[in-house]
Design a protein that fits this description.
The protein has one domain. Helix content is about 35%, strand content about 30%. The termini are far apart. Helix 1 runs antiparallel to helix 2. The chain is extended. The protein is an alpha+beta fold.
């Protein structure tokens, strides 16, 4: 599946082509219905060109995201050690995902289902 996103908050136009790949894995039968217990969704091209390095053009969105990440890192460095440790514990995983997305123009989300329950409606009253 591919799509094009257009527009920014400031009203300027931008176009980005993104690809979404969905893998449905580990199908199991639950009360007669086959359901995937593992889903992998990959988004590519969300932040601009997939290639990074010398000579590659970086989208304005990616440049802005990098600048915001730099400001956030600066703010973290200026915090007292205990406060910084707490903040990093809370936002560290999100920052890693953002960095990976900026570096590779690719995000992967894996969902693992542990249990599926079929709703049969309200229980019979005695």
């Amino acid at each position: 599946m591919e799509g094009t996103a257009r527009g920014r908050e400031d009203g300027t136009a931008t176009a980005t082509t993104a690809t979404v790949q969905v893998e449905l894995l580990d199908f199991r039968q639950v009360e007669g219905i086959f359901e995937p217990f593992r889903r992998v969704v990959r988004f590519t091209g969300l932040m601009g060109p997939a290639e990074s390095g010398a000579g590659s053009a970086e989208s304005e969105d990616t440049k802005q995201a990098r600048a915001e990440m730099a400001r956030l890192l600066e703010q973290l460095q200026s915090m007292p050690p205990e406060q910084r440790k707490m903040a990093e514990a809370q936002i560290g995983p999100m920052m890693k995902r953002m960095q990976a997305g900026m570096d590779q123009s690719k995000i992967e989300v894996v969902t693992t289902v542990k249990t599926i329950r079929i709703d049969r409606g309200p229980p019979d009253e005695d």
